[in-house]
Structure formats: C-alpha cells, structure tokens
Amino acid sequence: MTVLHRAAALTLLLLGLVAHATAQVTSGTILGAVADSSGGVLPGVTVAATNVETGLVHSATTDASGAYALTNIPIGRYQVRFEMQGFKTKLVGPVTLIVDQRLREDVVLEIGSLAETVEIRGRATLLQTDQPDMNQIVQEQEIKALPLNGRDFFSLLLLSNGVQDTSNDTGGATTNVTFSINGMRPESNSVTLDGVQMSSVRESDVDLRPSVDAIQEFKVLSSSFSAEYGHSAGGVISIQSKGGTNDYHGSGWEFFRDAALNANNFFRNPVSPTKPPLRQNQFGGTAGGPLKKNRTFFFADYQGHTLRKINEAFARVPEEPFRRGDFSSLLPGSIVYDPLTGKPFPNNIIPPERFSKFGSAILNAIALPNLPNDYPLGNYFIRQPHRVSGHEGGVRVDHVFTPNQRLFARYRWGYSETDTADALARSDGPMPGAGGGLGIDSRGIVQGGIHDDRNHNAVGSYVQVFGSHLVNDARVGYHHYELDVLGNAQGRNLAEQNGLRGVNDGVLCSDLPAIYLNAYTNIGGTDFKPLYFRETFWQFNDALTLTTGPHTLKVGGEYRQRLENHYFVLFPAGAFYFYPQRTTNYTYVGSHELAEVLLGLPFLS
Prior knowledge:
Blueprint: H1 3-18, E1 28-36, E2 46-51, E3 57-61, E4 67-73, E5 76-83, E6 89-97, E7 102-104, E8 107-109, E9 117-120, E10 134-139, H2 140-145, E11 163-165, E12 179-181, E13 190-193, E14 196-197, E15 215-223, E16 236-241, E17 249-258, E18 278-292, E19 296-315, H3 320-323, H4 357-364, E20 380-402, E21 405-420, E22 449-466, E23 470-486, H5 494-497, E24 514-516, E25 523-524, E26 531-548, E27 551-567, E28 575-577, H6 593-599
Parallel strand pairs: 1-7, 1-8, 6-9, 13-16, 24-28
Antiparallel strand pairs: 1-4, 2-3, 2-5, 5-6, 10-15, 11-12, 13-14, 15-16, 17-18, 18-19, 19-20, 20-21, 21-22, 22-23, 23-26, 24-25, 26-27
C-alpha cells in the first residue's frame, strides 16, 4: 500500500470516528422510490420538491434502483413533483417536513403524457421505518394553540414520555429551566437552537427561552438517537427558529393577568382575606417576509415580560418576649442557666447588658408574629413582594444564492431580572429589608435576592449541494451566558455594623451569615450568595451527506470551545447553628435556642 493510500485510509477512519460527535440536525430529508404500475423500478425520474412558503426548489434524479433522496433541505411544507417522459406527471403534497425527519414518499407513475398531472393530497401518516430513534415532535400549531402559563413553550416538554421538570431542585441559584429525561441528571441533556447549544455548561439549565411566536417546531429525542447527537447521555431537545417567507406577515400581542380577574383562594389569608396582588403583562410582536422574492427572507421578533405579585406562605418566627430575653413563660419546665455562673437567670430573664449585639439585632430584624402562637401552620403569614422584568428578541435572515447554495444567520438575546424581598424581614428593625433571606422550598418560602440573567446566541449556516448525491452543511455557533445572584444585604456589611467581627471580610462576604434554628424558620442572610457565572461557548461543525442507491452515508466533525468563569462559595459570610446547650448547663434539657442566640453562643459555626 502506498503512502498516499495509507493517508486516505487514515482520513476515512478518522472521519468515521468523528461522526460520533457530529453536528446536530436542523433540516430533513425527503426520500423514497419510484416504480411503474407493474412494480418495475424507474431510473432517471426527475424529482423536485418546492417549498410552498419560499419557492426554493430542491431536485434529484432516481438512480438505477429507482431510489431518490433530497437531503439536508430546510424544514417546511413542500410540493413534490415526479416527471419522466412517457409517464403522467405526479404531484404529491403539500407534505410537511419536520426537523431531522426522513420523510418517505414512494410513488407509482402511470403511463401517459407528461402534460397530464396526477395530484395526491392528504396521504395517511405511516409508521416511521427510516429512523430508529424514539422522539416526539411539537410543531408550530401545537406550540401556539395549546394554553401555556407564561407562554413558556418548555412546558410542552412534559407532554413527552420520560420527561420530568426539575426546575425547583436548584435551591434558588437560578430561575432557569431544568429537566430530567428517562431519569438522567439534567447535566446529561442537550438543548440546541438551530443546532447551536443554548443551555448552560454548568448543568444544562435553559437560560434563553424564545417566544412561542418565534419557534417553528422542536423535537424531543429520548433514546436511540444517532451519533450526530453524541454530546448527550440523557435526552436532546432540538429547537428550530422561524424564518421569513415570500409573503409579509406580522403579529402583535398583549397577554394580561390581574388579581381583579381571579377568584379568591379557598384557603384565604388568615390575616387579611383579600386576594394577593398580581399583575402580569407579556407583550411583543413579530414581522417577517421577503427582502427579495424567492431569494432573501427575514424574520424578527420581540417579547417583553413584567410580573408584580405577592408570594404567600406560613412561617414560625421568634415571639416578642423571647426577643427581649424574657423566657419566664417557660417556667417551671425549662430553666435558662447563665453560662458564666452555672446558675439560673433570675425569673428566666436574660438582662439586656448580657445580650450579644448581633444576636439581638438579628432577632429583632425579623418580622413579629401576626398569627396566634398555636396556629398550626405557623405564627407568621408571609406576604413577600416578588418582581420580574424581562426582554427577549431575535432576528433571522435566509438567503438563497442558487438552488444548490443557501445561507442563513440568526441572532437572539435575552435579559431578565428577578427581585424578591426577604421573606421575614421587617422595615422598622435594625436591618431594614434584610435578615430573613433564607428560603424553604417545601413550605413555599422563596429565597430573597436579585437574579440577573443576560444571554446572547448566534448561528451561521452554509449549505452546498454537489450534484444530486452529495451535500455539505457547515455551521458556526456562539452562546454567551451571564448570571448574577445577589442577596438583599449584599454590600451592606450588616454583620460588622452590628457587632459580629471577622465575617464581612471583603465585598464577596458582605452579606449576612445564615442562622439555622430548630423550632423556627431559618433567619439570617444567605447560604450561597453572591453567585457569578460567566460562560462563553463556541461551536464549529461540518457534516457531509452522501446518498448512493438506498444507502445514506453521513460523516462530519464538531469542535466545541467552552470558557467558564464562575464564582460560587457555600456560606460566604459564614453559618451559625443554634441549639440549647450552654444555657442548659450542658444537660441538653430545658432552656431555649433563642437564649443562645441572644447570648451569641452558637452550637456550631
């Protein structure tokens, strides 16, 4: 074997190996076989598929076995024409080609004049036999017609088998969407927009959510998908954006929700039976059409979102006498001992001069009870202001150079801010607006703080057809994601100002420490904020598709560059756990955990 032959063999081997990491599909294939009325195959039949919306024509000729394949053509509605001298022309469609579909159209031509046309409409949907993967397609009609709370099309994922929403399992670190497919962790999934990654590197949570009016369709692949989806061990969500057509189209909308339109909750607020405030507005519009008929098309969209509401939940907060050091109501069963003398405090009352400045401040930063102490769900009813503001939009341009050369470019951006008040904070305490930032998901208590998301996603694709059997698809993509999560006490150094030294050591540790209690809802600041994520993702890929007879060979390669710059620390300002210990004379019987807080004696820190 010559050196040249060895090099060629090695190149083919590498291409075959690279195929396991090839690019994700954003187009489809129409294929089939043509025969005459006796069942004999017909080579040399001209097959032309015309996109109904853009007028773009894709053509091929049947081979010696009567087979044809139109590969890597954009998704959409097509009219397929079959022509051969001596036979009647057959027109099939419109048929709808969806993402990554191998749409089979087998036809039989009748003997007759080429000028005669036989038109076939409304063909039955047959069992998928040309693809082994298990998938579900959600098309534009379902995306726009099905009711969606908040117009979030990711809710439709839950209609697919094996998909479970895990968005509430992120501990308040993000407001993005995460999901599990067939029991796999969210990090195992891949979410792409026009073939380019649009989820975070960290745990594949979806940080960019296009408007439902900007989506053509999306596909959920749950198992047995091909090697070109080799990035993922879980599932694959492949989303296709909408492009322009030969007709001008536009839309505008405003979706409005208000408490005045809602019925009252049966389980009403026990403090005030009025309905909680709610005002949500989602508004935007789209525009699309031709820049040049049959050649260049555009599509643009924008959506804004504002939400103002009150989160309601129950909590247990320290009683007012305990905050003053008065534990006399616990006598005679529970005695509070002075850790310095080993003797009980007179009448179970801790004198103010013995208070820890920070311990007293943090207890009095928490809202006072507004329900009886024996109320079964807690002695405090939370009314927590929650605000969301978001903007998202994009633009796409498609251009056809020739029937064998086409290009498209698309850019999307998104920005959102979520501002949630501390659930237990009081406005007239020593730390106005802070002191109760920890949340409890199981009780519906949302962590207080600010979330800022900023996203940019872009893609460029160039498709070149080399004759009727060879197609090349080259693509470059970019995704940038920024997330800032801050506590409401960030930068205020409230621990240092209230006597707790050595905690607020720099801007990254300038929040309140977390305070964990047993008999009460946790108080203090945060367990993980501030959090800063910066991710930049570049993707380059190329796929070559060769059709020969009934066989299709696809090889390609993909290169991904991930740049991550994160800051994430547990308990940046510290954490303190309180349990009756020193005030029980180390008998661990009696006393009260709030006595240890007032004296500044944590069980663990």
